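COMPLEX REQUEST
Ligand: norvaline
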Amino acid sequence: MTTVKHLISLMDWTPEQVLVLLDLAQEIKAHPEEFSTALEGKSLGMIFEKSSTRTRVSFEVGMTQLGGHALFLTSQATQMGRGEPVRDTASVLSRYVDGIMARTFSHEWVVELARYSHVPVINGLTDYLHPCQILADFQTVREHIGHLKGLELCYLGDGNNVAHSLINGAAKVGANIRVGCPEGYLPDAKLVERARREPTAGSILVTTNPVEAIAGAEVVYTDVWASMGQEAEQKAREAVFAPFQVNGALWKQTAKGAVFMHCLPAHRGEEVSAEICDGTMSVIYDQAENRLHAQKALLVTLM
Ligand code: CP
Ligand code: NVA
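STATUS: Structure written out below.
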């Protein structure tokens, strides 16, 4: 099996690499003590241009639990915010740290970072993708549903970063995915086409009909209607996205035993009703916990 250097997009990984990482995540979750010195003496630089609760804390705690150390670097508090070129940032950080995680607006910035970095680069969310989230999500699906291949997966809401990575991930593990979004908020057509060409891909349907997307789903996933950086569009989006709210009425269409997933933070009463978000079908906190285990597996694999 070829080794992976970075995680910028799940599309850059083979299906086998994704599945091996999920196995390792499960092993680390079951036996964390066996990995307590796996990254002894190693440092992870964490660049944040956007807010974060889960990503920051799970990577930082994950590094500590693996015997290493993490540095929280904001663009404002570093020379990045004053326009230092990405090439210089990548080259210099590579001489200090053993890995770099970055959460930025621009996806191209992270791609550039990886181009010039001599150490592994992890995409901790860009406007385009959120691959780390999907690794934790698939670990959670394995725990609650048991299978990924042939899974009936539904995503309702904005065809954005989380939806994009979910489509990529589904193609890698052979899950069938139906993505329901309002007109004008569909996922990137090129990304969808690329995912469909993946030999392991199941069916990938994009629709503007929420009922068509959710009918028979074993997993229903949603995300905020206005992502970080889109706050000014909040009101306009609420009107457009209303039919895509995951609520009791739509839930009646799901398969028996279906689970509800959300990357969090969630806005109850917007993309999901409280009865679903806090109901027995919800596995949102398991997902959040698995960010820690899946990313520890990622750090061990890359660093
Ligand atoms: N899901 C997720 O990435 O959460 P944070 O924005 O809190 O990191
Ligand atoms: N789509 C959301 C995900 C947050 C984890 C955002 O980009 O803000």
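REMARKS: Residues 10-130+291-302 form a domain with the Rossmann fold fold (CATH 3.40.50.1370). The longest strand covers residues 43-48.
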